[in-house]
Amino acid sequence: MLPDRSPFVYLLASQRNGTLYVGVTSNLLVRIDQHRRRVLPGFTRDYGARMLVWFEPHETMEQAILREKRIKKWNRAWKLDLIERSNPEWRDLACDFGFTPLA
User: Fold this and answer.
1) pTM for the whole structure
2) Residues 41, 45, 47, 50, CA torsion sign
3) How far apart are CA 59 and CA 70, in angstroms?
4) β-pair partners for 23
5) What is the DSSP letter of 100?
6) DSSP secondary structure, 6-52, as one string
7) Between 3.40.1440.10, 1.10.645.10, 3.10.20.30, 3.30.420.270, what CATH number should domain 8-97 receive?
8) Average pLDDT in the chain
9) Mind listing the pLDDT tens digit for each residue in 73-85?
């Protein structure tokens, strides 16, 4: 299980090779739940990016924010490579933490 309060950078996708979203949070499980239930207005709700395909823990929120900003500047191919190196099947990693698979 993940620690309740730990900084994470994460990538959501609408589907394999679909729309990507890069985010940062101090509570990954709560934030993923918010995205999956579409309670947060904005990009992920508008474009259906709800599948957790990559995440990375950080020691501090400052480090996580810097990493998020770097990844947001990357081109799409680099982001896809980041996902595929650790999650080549594009599994919804949220299911590993007890979330119901998306339909």
Assistant:
1) 0.94
2) positive
3) 17
4) 10
5) P
6) --EEEEEESSTTS-EEEEEES-HHHHHHHHHTT-S-SHHHHHT--EE
7) 3.40.1440.10
8) 96
9) 999 999 999 999 9
